[in-house]
Design a protein that fits this description.
The protein is of the alpha+beta class. It folds into 2 domains: 99 residues, D-3-phosphoglycerate dehydrogenase, domain 3 (60s Ribosomal Protein L30, Chain: A, 2-Layer Sandwich), CATH 3.30.1330; 271 residues, no CATH class. 54% of the residues lie in helices and 10% in strands. The protein is built from 16 helices and 7 strands. Strands 3-2-4-5-6 form a 5-stranded mixed beta sheet. A two-stranded antiparallel ribbon has the order 1-7. It is globular.
């Protein structure tokens, strides 16, 4: 498996697969072929259907500027991976070079006829069971395992990750107005955070604050702000909302939080390696489901639960997101994406609380639910895998058409 640095990427939203990945590819090709005169880009699959809402076309054009770039959308050609695009580089002397780019999710990419972009393998173990076995044999926590495989400098990187997570939340709480795009979604994080109700219970306040933090991250992401993929941009608000709330209310140190982030990284890495974290490939269960699972593991680590309880918490969280569709209205990472992060945070806490008490009687392993998630994603209709053509997205379009007729 790859380094968790590849899982926790710091960059601009609104989408790790539809914005970060294409931007990364465009930047690389622009620098490799500095004599380029112009570019032609063809977006396929999910990149075509939701590219405008995710700012894919704008990001590519801006990255390749000042050279001219024409981006076209191919809705018909079938491609092996949903996040695929071709870029033709026009060079002097009427030379043309075409590269096929696949955005794998979480900002990871491959480019045809180019060397690998990801870091080398850091983890020999491929499944959660293998990892747990190593940890038990060495009397390690999961974060000890990460430090052993990654090296001590991983803590410096995770400190940057945690700092950016907090900064994204603070920026989101401070900003007001409407999110970009045609949906005219009002930014609600600040209102949630500042809401006053003299009859509010402690439980109500806890959930309101965590929701405000999740909304803040989601709204910053939807605005193209800086964030951390956890494991993707669209699901980036779930885990940070819990970590920030716990660090503030229960005074967990930065070191404890970074250990929780490392623990969650093990969970995300197993899913990424053995299944998918791409909504276009396996639905929102791959994004929010994985984020919820990572958040549950992080929360369980903060509570110092044992390794079996951490596994159980992560398993329960992913299991109860199975079948979750990816149907962003208009292709924007706004509805239902932002609210889903807040709901997933609550699910993560509930999953951890259940795991604390029922782990010894729990029947499903984490590896089993990861495999199930991938199979479920492959069975899911294409319309429910980030095409903006099914579910809420389809109903919204129908309602809009009826209103126009009236």
């Amino acid at each position: 498996m790859k380094s968790i640095r590849e899982l926790y990427r710091i960059g601009h939203g609104p989408s790790s697969s539809h914005t970060m990945g294409p931007q990364r590819a465009a930047y690389y090709l622009r620098n490799k072929y500095p004599m380029a005169l112009s570019y032609d880009v063809i977006l396929y699959g999910s990149l075509a259907f939701t590219g405008r809402g995710h700012l894919t076309d704008k990001t590519i054009i801006d990255t390749l500027a000042p050279r001219p770039c024409i981006v076209s959308f191919d809705y018909k050609t079938k491609v092996e991976h949903a996040n695929t695009f071709n870029i033709t580089i026009h060079l002097p002397g009427e030379q043309n070079i075409t590269r096929r780019v696949v955005s794998l999710g979480g900002g990871a990419i491959t480019i045809s006829d180019e060397p690998p972009f990801e870091m080398g393998e850091k983890y020999e173990e491929k499944t959660f069971e293998e990892i747990k076995r190593v940890c038990l044999a060495n009397n390690w926590r999961f974060y000890d395992y990460v430090a052993d495989r990654e090296g001590d400098d991983i803590w410096e990187y995770l400190a940057k990750v945690w700092k950016q997570m907090k900064m994204t939340i603070e920026n989101g709480l401070a900003n007001r107005g409407f999110l970009p795009g045609q949906l005219k979604v009002y930014r609600r994080a600040g209102d949630l955070f500042n809401h006053f109700d003299e009859q509010e219970t402690l439980a109500d306040r806890s959930y309101r604050l965590m929701s405000a933090y999740a909304f803040a991250t989601g709204e910053e992401n939807a605005s193209g702000g800086m964030m951390v993929t956890a494991p993707t941009c669209g699901s980036s608000g779930t885990m940070p909302s819990i970590l920030k709330y716990m660090s503030e209310q229960y005074h967990f140190s930065d070191e404890e939080v970074m250990r929780a982030i490392a623990t969650a990284g093990v969970i995300g890495n197993v899913v990424k390696h053995n299944a998918s974290i791409s909504g276009a490939e396996a639905g929102c269960q791959a994004e929010i489901g994985t984020a919820c699972s990572m958040a549950a593991a992080a929360y369980a680590e903060l509570l110092h639960l044992d390794l079996n309880q951490i596994e159980s918490a992560a398993e329960i969280a992913l299991e109860h997101n199975l079948g979750l569709t990816c149907d962003p209205i208009g292709g924007y990472v706004q509805i239902p994406c932002i609210e889903r992060n807040a709901i997933a945070a609550a699910k993560a806490i509930t999953s951890t609380m259940l795991a604390k008490y029922i782990t010894n009687t729990h029947a499903i392993s984490f590896d089993a639910v990861v495999e199930t998630m991938l199979k479920t994603g492959k069975d899911m209709k294409r319309a429910y895998r980030e095409t903006a053509g099914g579910g809420l997205a389809d109903l919204y379009k129908s309602l809009k058409k009826k209103q126009v007729r009236k």
